[in-house]
UniProtKB/TrEMBL annotation, chain A:
Name this protein carries in UniProt: Pyruvate dehydrogenase E1 component subunit alpha
Keyword Transcription: no
Listed EC numbers: 1.2.4.1
Originating organism: Carassius auratus
Matches recorded under NCBIfam families: PDH_E1_alph_y
Molecular functions per Gene Ontology: metal ion binding; pyruvate dehydrogenase (acetyl-transferring) activity
Function according to Swiss-Prot or TrEMBL: The pyruvate dehydrogenase complex catalyzes the overall conversion of pyruvate to acetyl-CoA and CO(2), and thereby links the glycolytic pathway to the tricarboxylic cycle.
Lineage, highest ranks first: Eukaryota, Metazoa, Chordata, Craniata, Vertebrata
UniProt subcellular location: Mitochondrion matrix
Keyword Aminoacyl-tRNA synthetase part of the UniProt annotation: no
Reactions performed catalytically: N(6)-[(R)-lipoyl]-L-lysyl-[protein] + pyruvate + H(+) = N(6)-[(R)-S(8)-acetyldihydrolipoyl]-L-lysyl-[protein] + CO2
GO biological process per UniProt: glucose metabolic process; pyruvate decarboxylation to acetyl-CoA
Pfam families found in the cross-reference section: E1_dh (PF00676)
Cellular component, GO, one term: mitochondrial matrix
Cofactor requirements of the protein: Mg(2+); thiamine diphosphate
Automatic annotation (TrEMBL), chain B:
GO cellular component: mitochondrion; pyruvate dehydrogenase complex
Protein function: The pyruvate dehydrogenase complex catalyzes the overall conversion of pyruvate to acetyl-CoA and CO(2), and thereby links the glycolytic pathway to the tricarboxylic cycle.
GO biological process: glucose metabolic process; pyruvate decarboxylation to acetyl-CoA
InterPro entries, per database record: PDHB_mito-type, THDP-binding, Transketo_C/PFOR_II, Transketolase-like_Pyr-bd, Transketolase_C
Enzyme class: oxidoreductase
Species in which this protein is naturally found: Carassius auratus (Goldfish)
Coiled-coil residues: none
Subcellular location: Mitochondrion
UniProt name for this protein: Pyruvate dehydrogenase E1 component subunit beta
Gene3D superfamilies for the chain: 3.40.50.920, 3.40.50.970
Name of encoding gene: LOC113079627
GO molecular function, one term: pyruvate dehydrogenase (acetyl-transferring) activity
Ranges where the Transketolase-like pyrimidine-binding domain occurs: 34-209
Keyword Metal-binding set for record: yes
Domain of life of the organism encoding this protein: Eukaryota
Amino acid sequence: MQNMLTVVANTLKGGAKINGSRVVVSARSFADLTPQASFDIKRCDLHRLDEGPSVQTVLTREDGLRYYRTMQTVRRMELKADQLYKQKIIRGFCHLYDGQEACAVGIEAGINPTDHLITAYRVHGYTYTRGVSVKEILAELTGRKGGIAKGKGGSMHMYAKNFYGGNGIVGAQVPLGAGVALACQYQAKNEVCVTLYGDGAANQGQIFEAFNMAALWKLPCIFICENNKYGMGTSVERASASTDYYKRGDYIPGLRVDGMDVLSVREATRFAADYCRYGKGPILMELQTYRYHGHSMSDPGVSYRTRDEIQEVRGKSDPITMLKDRMISNNMASLEEIKDIDAEIRKEIEEAAQFATSDPEPPLEDLCNHIFFNDTPFEVRGTSPWVKLKSIS
Amino acid sequence: MAYLRSILRSGKNAVPAVLRREFHRTLPAAVQQVTVRDAIKEALDEELERDERVFLLGEEVALFEGAYKVTRGLWKKYGDKRIIDTPITEIGFTGIAVGAAMAGLRPVVEYMSFNFSMQSVDHIINSAAKTYYMSGGLQPVSIVFRGPNGAAPGVAAQHAQCFAAWYGHVPGLKVVSPWSAEDAKGLLKSAIRDDNPVVFLENEIMYSVPFEMSEESQSKDFLIPIGKAKIERKGNHVTLVSHSHVVSRCMDAAAVLAKDGIECEVINLRTIRPMDMEAIETSVMKTKHLITVEGGWPQFGVGGEILARIMEGPGFSYLNAPAVRVTGVDIPMPYAKHLEENTLPQIKDIVFSVKKTLNV
């Protein structure tokens, strides 16, 4: 009864989104659950900003479940990739994102699908949030023709609409992102570009060159430093003279955000996008986050940090657990519901992995294709003068 | 005809020769004298006008009107949005240009000298050239990188390197090296309209050289296809293959050799990658003698590639003598005039090589 009144009261207060199009999973009554709640989030440290994002945010049940589902999917997908790598079905480089899910999901929640995003090589999470299916991601990791890049790119080279990878050269993606922002400004569609880089990349000269031009020309670029405390095996204290990454933009305003809390990330991203979108110029966000895996699959990740540290973060700050606990303790979701979602995700990942291990590799005929776009077919020299291959756009 | 030949010869002699002959009375009305610099500017102007997505960026391209005045007048006509002055940050602005191209614009990046592009090489190759392939065809990159390449008088070692071989090495790039004004205009227009990354190697020595521009080449849709060489001079005895300013030297050498009854066929490569081997092979099958002539360094150079391909292809069995390369000397470019002159292939070097090859 009490809950029913709360629901009605919230509806009357205005804006409670009870979505009529939601699929009813079972005969359980949703009227028992709170449709939305307000949460306190950590205040951000500010640089050259008088005001920061709000310290309170409203989360609807619908959004909460969606963030949960997305983060859990990324988590499970990355763990599946770990498994496949250990089975030698994935080769080469594989940089996993588990622990950092709140960043990718929170950012996507704070921007529009028509906005743009670019990141470095720890990219599987963003590939998913930018619209590529788990199936296509895993199949790209296993190098099959059903992969998003037809098996020709691999872990670090995945692309989608308004998503520019997937970049293997540390720091290179930052000027590229500023360039996408220039295109946004040029085409005057009020779009922004989110340009991500890590604490390791933060010292790259080209990043400062990009900062300079972005500020000079007021490009709609949200620079985001995902500070997971370690650049490969080097901790931030050993790499950077200043670890206040949110201040490193100097004349560019910055904020430091709790990157383990999806709501903080969302709120900060909304704030940043608002700032950027209407001509104020670039802004810089530092997301304090953590990766559970080592730098890549060839790094156990314990030679430069302690297992205790990893365990502590898992226990106290896991982004998925945090969201789940928040929703359950505010009666926004039931444990059963969460279990159902987990089961669905597990199934989706299994099916995707199935596909990724059974889909054939790209055919040899595809070897020389996609050198040039919109071009006539031409001959490509093979490994010897008698081997003449063909390239088609 | 004499004045035409004098125009086709290298640089400084052409203009005075032409003026002395009062060309404005003897030229057909539609043909014009245009310097390579102006031809490049015309190409840029026409393409900026034709497609809104095209824009220029580089150091001093706007207000200063270009370090070599190639972009004179363009900023006044098109404004800040389309002609962008960049700070002196090559890797930064190259990355920005490539990103803009990924997002659908068509940037033309100017390097004040291709020597400065070394700072940007990661973006030209890893962000531009390889991307369409790595993305399995999802992400094209329509961009042109242009600027003066190779030798220029008195600029010394750090400003005189030729990058044709370096960029020509990379799959996913197209590399163009024009010689004449028509080359420059037609090829630059094609490069800008091409949906792929194109490295456009101009040359400072050629900027002020005027050439005859046919009526056809004055049209706004005049394009020269990338990947096709041009026979600048027909001959039966030996094939000279060259690119950029060195073509002028070959033409001069050919004139000298003609007096001894040796007729050279001079091929202007126009494009380094993809290279028009068919034109070279057809010529070699006729002349049976091949000499490549370039300003760049010999090791792993353009000539080395041509010779290797001739060895591997049908042309080899037609050769009556080993094919050879005439190149720049294998040293950093010195400053003193006499030393500098002797670092690049001179007319006498080409003449000497031809006579050695023909055993005369």
